[in-house]
Amino acid sequence: MNASLAERLRIETRALHTAAERSEFMRELLRGQMERTNYCALLRNLHAVYVVLEPALERHAQHPTIAPIFLPLLWRTQALEHDLYALHGAAWATELALLPAAIAYAGRLRDLAAAQPALLLSHAYVRYLGDLSGGQMLREIVAKSTTLDGAHAIAFYDFGDALASRELTRAFRDGLGAVPMNHRKARALVDEAKLAFELHQRLFDELATTCGLVTLRQP
Ligand code: HEM
Questions:
Q1: Whole-angstrom distance, CA of residue 38 vs CA of residue 46
Q2: CATH number of 56's domain
Q3: Would 177 be classed as within a structural domain?
Q4: What pLDDT is attached to residue 219?
Q5: What is the reported pLDDT for 151?
């Protein structure tokens, strides 16, 4: 039997997921004491992605590939704005730098919205299933972190209670199963998900460099 789209996305991006998890910046976040300015840099640059992705999904909500996974309860733009306001203050949008990788990522999403809206599904997969999975572990870490005032700035990870997160995960996976599919389309969607991980990797690398986390490695 052919693997479902959900299975293919999970299996074929697994190695890239592992690389993202092990990136310098994510490891620093997982340690639980990330400096507030560095965490704000992450949120500010992720905001640049969601603020393009979500209107693009809205615009193409009726598209046959997007409609099954169109779940506005997942949207993160306002939650990110809440956390950035709480952690940095009202001027976050002008005072926190946008990195080239985030600008490039937003550009890719704009191009897709204009010419290949079906591929937006892959970016929704990488972001929202990530937020609903590993994001829920990060929520605990950020909440406990004394550097991040976690009690007041975890809206980004908040999808309601655990039941709501599981329901949204199930709804998204069911949606993936309902997308009209053929071999060529599945290949294009999986390739785009791989690109989404690579764009994240580039962003994490730039964040690690600008935040001074990169250490010289032995050859
Ligand atoms: C901080 C590091 C991270 C940790 C600890 C983490 C952890 C996890 C865990 C435990 C799962 C559930 C795996 C399963 O159900 O078998 C998961 C799923 C997922 N994560 Fe991550 N993750 C991290 C970073 C990321 C990043 C940076 C992205 C995106 C760029 C991402 C995207 C995803 C996606 C798309 C899934 C769903 C896989 C699927 O079931 O199809 N994760 N993650």
A1: 13
A2: 1.20.910.10
A3: yes
A4: 52
A5: 72
Candidate from 133, 176, 194 with most ligand 1 atoms within 8 A of CB, to mutate: 133
| Assigned domain for 205 exists | yes
Contact of 205 with 23, CB cutoff 8 Å: yes
Q: How far apart are CA 11 and CA 3, in angstroms?
A: 10
pTM of structure: 0.95
Q: Which residues line ligand 1 (CB under 6 A)?
A: 9-10, 17, 20-21, 26, 29-30, 125-126, 129-130, 133-134, 137-138, 197, 200
The beta strand positions in 109-213, using DSSP E, are none
Letter for the amino acid at 59? R
Predicted confidence at residue 147, as pLDDT, reads: 86
- Whether residue 218 lies inside any domain: the answer is no
> What residue type is assigned to position 74 of the chain?
L
CA of 133 to the centre of ligand 1 (A): 6
The pLDDT value recorded for residue 214 is: 78
Range of the domain at 161: 5-209
Low-confidence ranges of the chain (pLDDT < 70): 1-2, 150, 215-219
